[in-house]
Predict the 3D structure of the following.
Amino acid sequence: MTLSHPELLAALEDFAKTASTTESLMDGIAKRLHENMTRYNWVGFYLVDEANPDILLIGPFVGSFTPNARIPLNQGLCGAAARTGETVVVNDVSKDPRYLAGSPLVKCEIVVPIMLKGKLAAELDVESYFTNTFPKPEQDFVEACARIVRSYLERK
């Protein structure tokens, strides 16, 4: 059974109340989004490398391909979201020269930066094998999922 956006957000918020670590929260969110949202073919988190804050490292993810393990902040859509601090939505990655391919199947991507005290802490990245997967209501939903992680981090 597929949950509606409000039902899934409520379930994720409940899960966040009992998650023992940030990694377990991210893992649970990635799995639930991947399972419930049929066009979310790859869902994952990138984390700022503590040793080199100019690099994003892959965190928990679910999907049918192995992602880029390290992304410099000056590359790709993840880098663009990191630099601007704003969500990046690309409805057809073949038309965006910033796209850093993880799989030739990907057609559409959204990256939501997770800011903590004005600094990038992580990103929620969702990729789809279908163009135009992230219209405004879908963008709002993915951003709400990222806010759950930010709220969790703020309590730590």
Notes: The CA atoms of residues 47 and 93 lie 22 Å apart. Helices lie at 5-18, 22-36, 76-84, 136-155.
